[in-house]
Design brief:
Layout: H1 2-28, H2 30-42, H3 55-62, H4 66-75, H5 87-100
Helix pairs in contact: 2-5, 4-5
Length: about 100
């Protein structure tokens, strides 16, 4: 009985750590999110998307604030469709793109 309870406790802790790590890991990795979701347009500047590293465009966009940029991606704006990522994941990607333009 004690062995079974110990195994269940270990399993529960493992699942909790996995789930919390997954949530934190995804949201924290802006480069990975950029590569998997944003790069199709933002790497080359397709359809008028601000190109990664374009200091002038990103400096101008940064004036609207990170939250406004996140909402634009989350809801869609212009030719960019609404994104299926969480706001936290989009924020990580936005921060990555802003940093790349510094």
């Amino acid at each position: 009985m004690k062995k079974r309870m110990k195994k269940l406790e270990i399993l529960a802790v493992g699942v909790a750590l996995f789930l919390s790590g997954t949530q934190l890991g995804i949201a924290a990795d802006g480069k990975e999110i950029f590569e998997s979701t944003c790069s199709a347009c933002h790497k080359r500047g397709m359809l008028g998307a601000p190109k990664l590293g374009d200091k002038d465009r990103w400096t101008e966009l940064a004036k609207t604030g990170k939250d406004a940029l996140v909402e634009s991606a989350f809801n869609g704006k212009g030719r960019m469709p609404a994104q299926s990522r969480t706001r936290e994941e989009i924020m990580a990607a936005v921060e990555f793109m802003l940093k790349a333009a510094e």
